[in-house]
Amino acid sequence: MAQDLYNIGIIGGGPAGCCCAYFLLKNGITPTIIDYLPLMKTILPTGGGKCNLAHAEYDFRELVKNYPRGEKFLYSIFSKFSTAETLDLFKELGIKTYTREDNRIFPISNSSKEVQEKFSIALKKCRVIKEKALRIEQTENRFKVITDMGSYNFDKLVFSTGGKSDYEMIKRIGVNIIEPRPSLTGLVTQEKLSELMGITVKNVYNYETGLTDDILFTHFGISGPLVYKISSLKSRESLPYILNFDLLPNLEDLQTILNSNPHKFIKNILSEYLPLSLCEFLLKSTNINPDEKCHRINGKQRDLILKQIHNFSLTIKSTQKDGETVTSGGVALDKINPKTMESKEVKGLYFCGEIINVDGFCGGFNLQNCWSTGYVCAQGVKG
Ligand SMILES: Cc1cc2nc3c(=O)[nH]c(=O)nc-3n(C[C@H](O)[C@H](O)[C@H](O)COP(=O)(O)OP(=O)(O)OC[C@H]3O[C@@H](n4cnc5c(N)ncnc54)[C@H](O)[C@@H]3O)c2cc1C
């Protein structure tokens, strides 16, 4: 049997590891993938099962701005492989794609299962070991991977074990890890908001981040697109922290509205702008009877209502349990060579995907990180 030029091991057969394996194969190198799950299983829930595989931003200088961690690091990586190259990759795999109005890119099949299947077919030549890596030992320029069932030696080793990696295993061989924290997740509030569960408010402004988007009230606190972005931007901040929202940034003069509707209930007038149960909640929390007629609302009460609407304040005590879509933190970027994805601390050790301290917003950016770092990693391993 022909021997490979290198004996390459990839721990983790998710999007990043599989992308790296794909480009190694293209370069005539057959890697061994170790994963206790079927290849690409972790892509199945992405995009709600539809797989939002990339974002239609073709200028890599703009693309990098969607990564609260990794912006600078990704610059040279995206200059080699970003959205256009991702579409080429998917074309090669035989997956047709389309771009949605919001610039998110999906397979035409709207099926992450198709992505899993096409990658599995493309990687048929790889040796796949369905075991869990437990420990790594370094022996004279070689890596020994000890799994739950055996041990394997490699000249070069790629780690692509994702945001739920066993970071201790990597730390033990001398790799610097930035403490992992949840990102793109719902937030648990100190205030009890369960009576608002299921309510969505559109175009809410958040003062701390300067962002406007939709917010969803849940049984534990808040979620939705705005909250996901906030959780990402604040993932390194210590808890608890306070968030202030303007629930109606475009509200016209409230006094004029009250004057024009003197005999209507205050809750009914406000519910023309916000969901009724939220109006009742806001009024009750300012000790104003929701069934009070508008002409009976005095100036002090009006100001209290306005404060509730324009300065709705919540204390965030934790992130939603197991609610994270991605992990912020991971392998420290200043310890990785972005030209090759090789560790600067351990020669012959490479990283790609979410295991590194890169995480992006929702919209296909996190998978883009996997495709791009997977590609550069394969080139780096090839040398
Ligand atoms: C619900 C959900 C929806 C998402 N939707 C999107 C989306 O639409 N678009 C987008 O861009 N991003 C999305 N993401 C994020 C995206 O899925 C991740 O960023 C991406 O999967 C990371 O890929 P990865 O290969 O780095 O790691 P992973 O996908 O986590 O894969 C790591 C692999 O390593 C294996 N592994 C781990 N440890 C070991 C070990 N010790 N031994 C052997 N194998 C091991 C695991 O079994 C796994 O197969 C979503 C995430 C979630 C949770």
Provide keyphrases for this structure.
single chain; six-stranded antiparallel β-barrel; alpha+beta; five-stranded parallel beta sheet; FAD/NAD(P)-binding domain; 25% strand; binds flavin-adenine dinucleotide; 383 residues
What does this structure look like?
The protein is an alpha+beta fold and 383 residues long. It has two domains: 8-182 and 325-382, FAD/NAD(P)-binding domain (3-Layer(bba) Sandwich), CATH 3.50.50.60; 187-319, no CATH class. The protein has twelve helices and 21 strands. The strands form six sheets. It has a six-stranded antiparallel β-barrel. Helix 1 runs parallel beside helix 12 (365-382) and helix 3 (71-80) packs across helix 12 (365-382). The longest helix has 18 residues, at 365-382. The chain is elongated, with a radius of gyration of 25 Å.
Q: Mean pLDDT, nearest integer?
A: 96
**Small-molecule components bound:** flavin-adenine dinucleotide
- Spatial strand sequence of the major β-sheet: 12-15-14-13-16-17
Poorly predicted regions are none
Classify the fold: give the CATH topology of the largest domain: FAD/NAD(P)-binding domain
CATH class of the largest domain: Alpha Beta
**CATH H level of the largest domain: which superfamily?**
FAD/NAD(P)-binding domain
- Number of DSSP strand runs: 21
Radius of gyration: 25 Å
Strand content: 15-25%
Fraction of helical residues? 25-40%
Give the termini distance in whole angstroms.
23 Å
CATH architecture of the largest domain: 3-Layer(bba) Sandwich
Number of helices: 12
Biggest β-sheet description? 6 strands, antiparallel, barrel
Give the tally of structural domains.
2
> What is the general shape?
elongated
Secondary-structure-based class equals alpha+beta
